[in-house]
Amino acid sequence: MAYRAQVTWERRYVRLLILFDAAACVVAAGLAFFVRFGDLVDFETKPVSIKPYILMTVLLPVAWVLAMSLNRAYETRFLGSGSEEFRRVVNAAARFTAALAIISYATKAEIARSYVLIAFPAATVLSVAGRVIGRGILHRMRRAGRCLHRVLVVGAGESAATLVRLAQRDPTSGWSVVGVVLDRSPGRHSHDRPERSGFDLLGVPIVGTSETLHTAITATHATTVAICPQMDGETLRRVLWTLEGSDVDVLVSSALTDVTGPRISIRPVAGLPLLHIDEPELTGTRRVMKGVFDRCVAGTVILLFLPVLLGLGLAVRLTSRGPALFKQTRVGRGGEHFTMFKFRSMYVDAEARKAELESHNERAEGLLFKMRDDPRVTRVGKFLRKWSLDELPQLINVLNGGMSLVGPRPPLPSEVARYEDDVHRRLMVKPGLTGLWQISGRSDLEWDESVRLDLRYVENWSLAMDFVILWRTVFAVLRREGAY
């Protein structure tokens, strides 16, 4: 029953994406046609030049969806999370355009460049936008407890707890952990966890051991089995044999919980499938592209919204004593200090009053000072923080190369002085105006979680990830999550 329900919602979601892609291509092809031939109302005027384009405009959506399907852009395991889905859409569009160019060259077909330059880029952008809309719909349904994978976690001790914790942390992942099965591999002991059914792990019931896995799947109606990395090879083989023909997806977790797919590949050595981990992309052509993109976007936004920026600065200046901009030393890439700009949201004596408010710090670890109702914040400052407008002057830092649009949170020198060795990896890239911390809760995050997110960004950065983070930042700002 659970498997049929999962197949049903997955098929409906794929149909929705196919509809979005077809509609995107219809709009793009129609736009290209009317831009190119909109002034030709009499079809008999140039029948040879127009009719092929009418046929192409009609057939293009079908060919577009077929190209997406051939490039596995509808593969359900990549839908709803991560950047792989968008990468496949863009790759499919590029290959389709290249194939059409080759065919037109081979058949001597004359296709107007203006039609191609409008239709295919527009179709690509609209298809990606359709995926974003579809993902938003899927995430809302998952937050409401629908369209979920019923997951049975197989493992022992802290490894099982880590998987359960990660699944519970993000409801949009689509995982609903319905039970834990204890790994009873030879030599495996779990002294810190209950070892029999009837107990629970982080609120999830323990429903058996790896020896009774099939019974546990039947009892919980699980559609997915997630296996922790500590399971030995012999036990894993037996588990896989047990699940053959059961229509249950099997996922094996690696110990590299914060290294994502683009850096991982399977490399067979002496008959063993080993994980090959690429180094994080901290230099090279894509980093140059990121820098160019950052500066272009920052410069464009500053020019377009200059009246707004001046108006906000004037509001800060007129409603409280002190300058419009707040300047503070932060630490950038490689440990270099730079001056970060923000709209001043506090009274000028805020730093002097910090000591008397230290007991009200809502951060237990004490490394950062966060207070939801901070009396040092001005009335205009509360408005600016509520909508994250106080951070807009950081576009100047992006423009002069000290910051990036996306990256880790820019730390204070006092924070860096207390960093443990691993946390220094945050300084391997430029700090960002937004980042994974911004779209995951901001001030509501615990220190350890914000560090984990920053390190995850450093390890897995890509242009596609940046685009996803920028898009999600818009909705995070509108929801005002953790903004105070």
From TrEMBL:
<comment type="similarity">
    <text>Belongs to the bacterial sugar transferase family.</text>
</comment>
<dbReference type="Pfam" id="PF13727">
    <property type="entry name" value="CoA_binding_3"/>
</dbReference>
<dbReference type="InterPro" id="IPR003362">
    <property type="entry name" value="Bact_transf"/>
</dbReference>
<dbReference type="GO" id="GO:0016780">
    <property type="term" value="F:phosphotransferase activity, for other substituted phosphate groups"/>
</dbReference>
<keyword id="KW-0812">Transmembrane</keyword>
<feature type="transmembrane region" description="Helical">
    <location>
        <begin position="112"/>
        <end position="133"/>
    </location>
</feature>
<protein>
    <submittedName>
        <fullName>Sugar transferase</fullName>
    </submittedName>
</protein>
<keyword id="KW-0472">Membrane</keyword>
<dbReference type="Pfam" id="PF02397">
    <property type="entry name" value="Bac_transf"/>
</dbReference>
<feature type="transmembrane region" description="Helical">
    <location>
        <begin position="86"/>
        <end position="106"/>
    </location>
</feature>
<keyword id="KW-0808">Transferase</keyword>
<feature type="transmembrane region" description="Helical">
    <location>
        <begin position="296"/>
        <end position="316"/>
    </location>
</feature>
<feature type="domain" description="Bacterial sugar transferase">
    <location>
        <begin position="290"/>
        <end position="478"/>
    </location>
</feature>
<feature type="transmembrane region" description="Helical">
    <location>
        <begin position="12"/>
        <end position="33"/>
    </location>
</feature>
<dbReference type="GO" id="GO:0016020">
    <property type="term" value="C:membrane"/>
</dbReference>
<dbReference type="InterPro" id="IPR017475">
    <property type="entry name" value="EPS_sugar_tfrase"/>
</dbReference>
<keyword id="KW-1133">Transmembrane helix</keyword>
<feature type="transmembrane region" description="Helical">
    <location>
        <begin position="53"/>
        <end position="74"/>
    </location>
</feature>
